[in-house]
Write a structure and sequence with these properties.
Helices cover 0% and strands 45% of the residues. By secondary structure, it is an all-beta fold.
């Protein structure tokens, strides 16, 4: 079983919101910088880094494509990473993954599908 499990995806209208969660089960969550990545549904698309957060949650950074709309946060007591996604756009449609920053290749989970469509 994957030690990083994403949830919270689904179908949203343009302009809508979703909140993603990622629970880590190895109990090393608090020592790692964490990140959200996404992979859009087109052949050959790579997995893109969209948001990062430091171990203590005091520093976050965003890709230009989501800056001002998405908010990354974490709860170290719950080993959980979050991504609040607001003002969603059709181009946000993708499978969203969490992992460390930089990512551990063996820790990719199944991801959670986000579809933005009217």
């Amino acid at each position: 079983q994957a030690d990083l499990v994403e949830s919270g995806g689904g179908l949203a209208r343009p302009g809508g919101s979703l909140r993603l969660s990622c629970v880590e089960s190895l109990n090393v969550f608090r020592i790692n910088n964490m990140a959200w990545y996404r992979q859009a549904p087109a052949p050959g698309n790579q997995r893109d880094l969209i948001a990062t957060i430091s171990r203590g949650g005091d520093t976050a950074d965003y890709a230009d494509s989501v800056k001002g709309r998405f908010i990354i946060s974490r709860d170290n007591a719950k080993n959980t990473l979050y991504l609040q996604m607001n003002n969603l756009k059709p181009e946000d449609t993708a499978v969203y993954y969490c992992n460390t920053d930089p990512p551990f290749p063996t820790r990719w989970g199944q991801g959670t599908q986000v579809t933005v469509s009217s």
